[in-house]
Amino acid sequence: MNCKILTSALPNIPWEERPAGSSELMWRYSGNPVIRPDGIRNANSIFNSAVVPFGDAYAGVFRVDDTCRIQRLHAGFSADGVHWKIEDDPIVFEGGQVFEYGYDPRVCRIGDDYWVTWCNGFHGQPTIGIAVTRDFKTFTQKENAFLPFNRNGVLFPRKINGKYAMFSRPSDPGHTPFGDIYLSFSPDMVHWGEHKLVMSPTRGWQALKIGAGPIPIETDRGWLLFYHGVLLSCNGYVYSMGAALFDLEEPWKVIARTDAYLMAPKMDYERVGDVPNVVFPCAALVDGATGRIAVYYGAADTVTGLAFCRAEEILAHLLKQK
Hints:
Elements: E1 27-28, E2 43-54, E3 57-66, E4 71-78, E5 84-86, E6 102-110, E7 113-122, E8 125-133, E9 140-141, E10 150-155, E11 164-170, E12 181-186, E13 193-199, E14 209-212, E15 217-219, E16 222-233, E17 236-246, E18 254-257, H1 268-271, E19 279-287, E20 292-299, E21 303-310, H2 311-319
Antiparallel strand pairs: 1-21, 2-3, 3-4, 4-5, 6-7, 7-8, 8-9, 10-11, 11-12, 12-13, 14-16, 15-16, 16-17, 17-18, 19-20, 20-21
């Protein structure tokens, strides 16, 4: 299938070819998990984190649950996207906004700015926090995007019709047993409105709730989004990964979405941990020259894994399901 990825080349993307004899659309890195809590002071677990190209290397914001089991955000750096140096101390945000805890960050580059969104503790309740950095050392926190309760705030990498755009999943104060993906717009990254329902749960692996994952990838066929879906089994929630395609200029319009999951908990490090049976995508690196994609995902709410796919194969699979 001919398709064009409308993003820059990334020749040093972390990559491993599909294993011989495999027909999987998405395959795991043989060295998983790539990030463990080992060696980070007071870290219980590191998962559901976000990375981006930064200069000739990589930087990111990482969810680190400490040994008090408080969710914190830490900055980190890597030369190759596989071996990471994560700061021992959590990010201290400038700006004077309320920050009580932070988890499940995403990082989106728009122009020269790196925008961080996360689930922000606001007077004891979760909503979408926003901050901006240029060096991953100084972070300035802005106003929260929404009132509580909300999770999974995912920005688009460019303005759409002159406005910033963000996916989110309205929720409740607990471990939400429901969830639809909504889209909101802002003229200034402060005032958010024009809310539109985008996708709802359907059946099987995505029957209970869904949520946006990594920053949407712009292609000539539409916005490609990896997302998580959740089912409720007799033994609790199970989180898996799928993909969807949206109209470029009206991204609340779904072109196609996966019926079967692309990846579900299978390996021991995905099935066994603080929260069993979780595959939760939060970041994707893309090589616009070759269509190679590397997806970072939280595994069992304990460690971070890495998986690979090719854009043309994912798009072809999606478009067959239109």
